[in-house]
Amino acid sequence: MFKEVEELKQLCEAEIMSLKQQIKMMQNSFFLRWNAKATIQVAEAKVAKIQELLVKLETLSEQVTPVVMDIKELLGIELHGVKKGK
């Protein structure tokens, strides 16, 4: 699970960088397309949403990590107890 979360974070960071680069290219373009302003607004909104979701993901992973560790610890203790009983 942790591996997937880290991969997702990396993909989000790469997408944010790509979107920001696209925004800069559109803003610095000498010949603006007729829909450049709308395209820039959509890209900026997407960046903001991705960043917001990354914050939520980080918060959730901080909450989940101790629970997962506790479960692993309990299962490990329980498994050792089962092995000792045999």
In helices, the fraction of residues equals: over 70%
Instruction: Supply the number of helical segments.
Output: 2
Stretches where pLDDT is under 50 for at least 5 consecutive residues are: none
- In percent, how much strand structure appears in the residues? under 5%
Question: N-to-C terminal Cα separation, in Å?
Answer: 32 Å
Shape: rod-shaped
Quick one: biggest sheet? none
What's the number of extended β-strand segments? Answer: 0
Secondary-structure element pattern, one letter each: HH
Task: Let me know the average pLDDT.
Answer: 85
Calculate Rg over CA atoms.
22 Å
Structural class: mainly alpha
Protein architecture, described:
With 86 residues, the protein is an all-alpha fold. The chain is 90% helix and 0% strand. The protein has two helices and no strands. It has helices at 2-28, 36-85. Helix 1 runs antiparallel to helix 2 (36-85). The longest helix has 50 residues, at 36-85. The protein is rod-shaped and about 70 Å long. The chain starts with a helix and ends with a helix. The model has no long low-confidence stretch (mean pLDDT 85).
